[in-house]
Amino acid sequence: MCTFRCSAQAGVLRIQRKAVKPWNLSAKSPHRASTVTVEINRQPVEMLYAGPQPEYLGLDQINIRLPRDLKPGVYPMVIKISDQMSNEVLLRVQ
Q1: Could you tell me if 15 and 64 are in contact, meaning their C-beta atoms sit under 8 angstroms apart?
Q2: Is this prediction's pTM over 0.85?
Q3: What integer pLDDT is reported at residue 2 of this predicted model?
Q4: Can you tell me the distance from the alpha carbon of 59 to that of 67, in angstroms, rounded to the nearest whole number?
């Protein structure tokens, strides 16, 4: 089951997830934006923000810039925080 919620606008993908240990990105967490990476189709993408979701308590948010050369299709995506990696999810690009 995928626990990520995604939305995209103008080439930026916003990923939200429940803030659960050990991946909590709150200000008190040792996992800060510098330790978060996202890969789409096994290629790292530009990280814009990783931290608490500003409107809803208990959610983390990760904003990434989608590569300009990403063509429509379905691609594997993973999130890495420090030395832990999410399950692979499929990202559909239209």
Answers
A1: yes
A2: no
A3: 41
A4: 25
